[in-house]
Amino acid sequence: MITLTKEDGPADLDGVTHLSIGVSWDPTSGSSGGVLGTLRRKQGTDLDLIAIAMQGADPVRLAGLDSLDPLGNGSLVHSGDNQTGKGEGDDETVTVEFARIPQNITAIIFVAAAFKKGSSFQKARNVSIKVYDATGGSSQQVADIWPSMLSADNGCAVAKAVRAPGGSWKLEVINTTGKIKQGDEIALMRFAVSK
Hints:
The chain has helices at residues 34-43, 185-193; strands at residues 11-12, 18-27, 48-55, 58-63, 76-78, 92-97, 107-113, 124-133, 140-145, 155-163, 169-178. By secondary structure, it is mainly beta.
């Protein structure tokens, strides 16, 4: 098993055939109390987990938002959009099966973002991103990433899986926040590839 932090640098994923990354959050009413606060908690806020498949320096496929199987072969699969943060466990997940990732894909960048207009990291509480070794159908947690609650940013570059020479993969925790223009996929991809 590997255990990862940002300070560790890239880790070899030898023996890891499947990797899952999940994001969870709790909806909050912010400073609103009473009926208004209850309604805001009920409505929640919509954070998004997005995986961007890279071919060299170019983003070529995106898992998340409305695309659940962008490579068309089940090798990069998104669980679907949770728009409220309600429920137990991970609210959104992306699973990678490395052996089936096409050879032209050189890296996969994982981003958590308040991407849609009106959503906000500040309207969510206890944002947590977990990385799992899902080899053999198990779910062994190898990293727990907590973006800062002080940030006014709306995006977090979570981690990056990179194909090493010889075809093996490495995973690096990034955990760097930044601003993304909401609703703008080009801005989202520019943010991801800059990390």
